[in-house]
Amino acid sequence: MGEEVHLGLPGPWAEDYREKADHYTTKIGGVPDWPTEDLGIKPHLLECSLCGNKLCLVAQVYAPVAKLNIENRTIYVLVCPKPKCGSNPQSWKVLRVQKCHSTEQTDGKVDETDQIKENFCSSEPSSSSSLNKSNEASDDDFDLDALANALEQAATLASNSKKQNKSKCSNAPIKCPTGKEKVDDPGVPVLPCFYIYYDKEKSRGKCILGSNSSESVLVKGLADVANDDEEKWEGENYEYERAIGADRTFLKFKKRLDAYPQQCFRYSCGGKPLLAAINLQDPGTCQLCGSPRQYELQFMSPLSYFLHEAGDGSLDYAPDGWTWLTLIIYTCAKSCCPSSCVGKSRSCCWGVAEEEIMIQED
């Protein structure tokens, strides 16, 4: 079987874009829900590298890693609110915030919230056996029912936040009134906020481009053009091959996007990204431990559409100037913790690491 991909789809809108939730909440926009107030995040990680302006939250994704026994782990994606900066990769930042493994448990005790997360964390997104084969399920399988239950219980216990598995049949986020506490700092720019629920991308086997599809016809046509010009010099043949590869890559991207036009992001930790173009740079290695980075998730263009739809003249910031097709996030394969937290007391059990983001433009 191919790798499993889990899609982040739009749930309910937040009643107030500055309302508080918790770090177990997966959402688009709003304000970051840090797990603790004393994270010790260095100021430059929350500022634009180009203009120094405060960054705003694009997405917050709760992302435990079962195979590494890391339950408290959240990915935060931030961007500069200035339109002139938003199209530059240097104005984007990805922060991985997690509780250091060595201090997850003290004296053999596990807090009540961690126990509630157990089902979620033992069933993180993976590329193992089908969800329908319950008798073959392993700790790496992703059980959507378990995910729904775990998120619902965790949200109730931690902050009575919105349940993330509502409005599954909606075509767009729906306004759902709540009476939640909000962040009153006007200096923090915010994007419109809505919550996310997950769905599994249906497997299509190897038929990414159907034999009768217009995409296949176009690709075949490009190949025929190349074959007709066999006497062209080698450099020209190379350009033909690149054109065929580029078009095929984009058509595959478009077909997968069109199959789920509401997808805001795709999650497949350790899997492969869905590329819109073939020119993707090396994500490099972790700045903390030197381990290779691996693909974890990517954001898709419908995200920008939903945020634009929320524009009602009262927003602090709208995603103007965004022309990207996809934002691809790479994280440390070992999901390491900063050395400053290793062996320290429980008051220093949260680590913050900057990860890599790559942009593929329209």
Which terms would index this structure?
362 residues; alpha+beta; 2 domains; 6 helices; Programmed cell death protein 2 C-terminal domain-containing protein; PDCD2_C
What do these coordinates show?
- The protein is an alpha+beta fold.
- The chain folds into 2 domains: 6-201 and 265-361, no CATH class; 209-259.
- Helix content is 22%, strand content 22%.
- It is built from 6 helices and 11 strands.
- The protein has a 10-stranded antiparallel barrel with strand order 1-7-2-3-4-5-11-10-9-8.
- Helix 2 (112-121) packs antiparallel against helix 3 (144-158) and helix 4 packs antiparallel against helix 5 (234-259).
- The longest helix is centred in the C-terminal third of the chain and has 26 residues, at 234-259.
- Residues 103-142, 154-170 and 206-223 have low confidence and may be disordered.
